[in-house]
């Protein structure tokens, strides 16, 4: 039996995932978590074969939690599940140690297939993502400007490009306005940009936002 910890801050998402898993004979959700601290506490207290982790956790984000899990439990596979399309976060997630990346729009059978593959020691990635990973392995001089950003800077840049204000982002991520402003400033500096409009233009040009 494959024991899974479901980590998502939305109860409705966790309930939906449990319904999908309930239709299988060899997979069971034995734990739930709504934020990063709960994830780490659950893994420290119980044994799981896989963590399904949302990337957009409040406070300490999913990528940060992923890195913590990899440090403490390097043999524990983590499957990232996100509302964001692959082109936004998948490469970062796999680089941080994820065993796979799925969007929340993925079909139920794809989720089950991914669970089986990663719990058997494999990686679950789409063909499009495989191409992106191959290009990512080039030297740093070939990297796109946004690949130089930290995970949080990148997240803030995308949210600003999607039309959200610094205050909106602070509320959504449960962080201070000052922290978001600092990440915005660093992202602008690293990318050689001056304002939010340049973020938006760049993100649209690179197909990072719709």
Automatic annotation (TrEMBL):
BP-aspect Gene Ontology terms: phosphorelay signal transduction system; regulation of DNA-templated transcription
Modified residues (4-aspartylphosphate): 54
CDD domains, A to Z: LuxR_C_like (cd06170), REC_NarL-like (cd17535)
Response regulatory domain: residues covered: 3-119
GO MF annotation, one: DNA binding
Residues covered by the HTH luxR-type domain: 142-207
Record carries keyword Metal-binding: no
Keywords noted in UniProt: DNA-binding, Phosphoprotein
Cross-referenced InterPro entries: CheY-like_superfamily, NreC/VraR/RcsB-like_REC, Sig_transdc_resp-reg_C-effctor, Sig_transdc_resp-reg_receiver, Tscrpt_reg_LuxR_C, WalR-like
PANTHER family: TWO-COMPONENT RESPONSE REGULATOR
Record-given protein name: Response regulator transcription factor
Organism lineage: Bacteria, Pseudomonadati, Thermodesulfobacteriota, Desulfobulbia, Desulfobulbales
């Amino acid at each position: 039996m494959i024991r899974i910890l479901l980590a998502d801050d939305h109860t409705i998402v966790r309930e939906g995932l449990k319904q999908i898993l309930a239709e299988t004979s060899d997979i069971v959700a034995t734990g739930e978590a709504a934020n990063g601290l709960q994830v780490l506490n659950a893994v420290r207290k119980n044994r799981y074969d896989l963590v399904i982790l949302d990337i957009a956790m409040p406070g300490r984000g999913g990528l940060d939690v992923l890195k913590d899990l990899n440090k403490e439990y390097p043999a524990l596979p983590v499957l990232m599940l996100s509302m964001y399309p692959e082109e936004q976060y998948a490469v970062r997630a796999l680089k941080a140690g994820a065993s796979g990346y799925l969007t929340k729009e993925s079909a139920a059978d794809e989720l089950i297939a991914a669970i089986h593959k990663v719990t058997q020691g494999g990686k679950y990635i789409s063909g499009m993502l495989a191409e992106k990973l191959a290009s990512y392995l080039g030297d740093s001089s070939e990297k796109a400007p946004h690949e130089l950003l930290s995970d949080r800077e990148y997240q803030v840049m995308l949210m600003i490009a999607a039309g959200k204000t610094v205050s909106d982002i602070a509320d959504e991520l449960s962080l201070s306005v000052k922290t978001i402003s600092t990440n915005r400033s660093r992202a602008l500096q690293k990318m050689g940009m001056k304002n939010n409009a340049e973020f938006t233009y760049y993100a649209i040009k690179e197909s990072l936002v719709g």
